[in-house]
Design brief:
This protein is an all-alpha fold and 418 residues long. It is built from twelve helices and two strands. The chain has two domains: 175 residues, no CATH class; 217 residues, no CATH class. β1 and β2 form a beta hairpin. It is globular, with a radius of gyration of 21 Å.
Length: 418
Amino acid sequence: MLNRNPVNLSHPLWLCGFRPFFLAAAVAAAGLMALWGGFLGHGLPLPAVPGGPFVWHAHELIFGFALAAVAGFALTAIPEFTDTAPVPAQPVRLLFMLWLAGRAGFWLSGAGSGEVGGVGGLGAAALAVAALAHLGLVGGLVALLAPRLVKDPERKHLSFLWALLALAVPIAGFYADALTGAPPARWLHATIGLLMILIVLALSRISMRIVNSALEERGESPDYRARPPKRNLAIVCIALYTVAEFLSPGERIGGWLALAAAAALCHLQSDWHVGRALFRRWPLMLFGVYLLMAAGYGLIGFALVSGSDGLSAGRHLLTVGAIGLSIYMVLNIAGRMHCGQPPDERRWVPAGAALLAGAALVRAATALPGAPVALLLATSSLLWLSVFAAWLWHMAPLLAGPRRDGGTGCEGIIETAT
């Protein structure tokens, strides 16, 4: 009999690590943007946090929405990549509780009075809880997944371990600055760079399956390869820009490095020149991630080198565009496959990808001279919110319910199921 209590470990929600985290990511994406839209459009209050509303917005979309998606992906993909057993339900639930504690701690960090380390007394305690929760989540992922990555005979997925370890640095830095009263936003910008690197790493694995499958469907040879030299060049350029932005924000050297990152990402896209198979829905949507990423770094580079507006617009092409679309794709591809379901061929999936790209472009358009900023911000927020609300409508029942193909965990579609 189906256990209907989601707290119980026998509930389908805990069948696989991606289930609670993908659901949390989508709820956060829609809910946080609704709150942000209410603040921008109607002045509705947001939690009082160190750095103010804009830091709250960036923190929650990076350490809330994106980190939940990273956790769900890592807990599911790394056992698959290393051909090891799924992560048990109990540690997954503990990690999820840490994610929730991180949200609660940061949202309450403006409470209290009396200055302690630049933050109110209760606020300092709440920030400490949030810091420990976020670091505990990343540390828990490393503890659970590092042995699998290290013991893998080929060790070809170790880059995920280094990326997860690197995530702990901006988290610790953010909370250290917040606790001492220093502006913490620079650490959020650094985390964006790390997420870009993670996206490149993840898409290089996902694209091998998706593009070659598209080639086979067209009766062509599945000979697509995500070549490491091009991928590594893009990663190095992104890392160099991220370091330059952190150490010398607003300087021209950062602009040149951002342009180098854009060029490297365009070079990486040359691997995708596979003919008409590229224009099938799944490869094209994944390719869109690289397009938005290259455009974001290109716009950032142009703004810094020329001294013009566009830095924020380029950054939003990376966050709303590349991060939003890549997570949306992972939620759709891995979410269905590991629920024992075939890819969703309905129109709402590519429509959602197009709306996310539109949300990024509309948000970037606020940098244009004479742009109706309030209208564009509201439109971008509504487009983003509608995409993840639609995803929850279609996908939440699958992730919170039992598998229908006879599977009992994280395995992919069981072909013999009727």
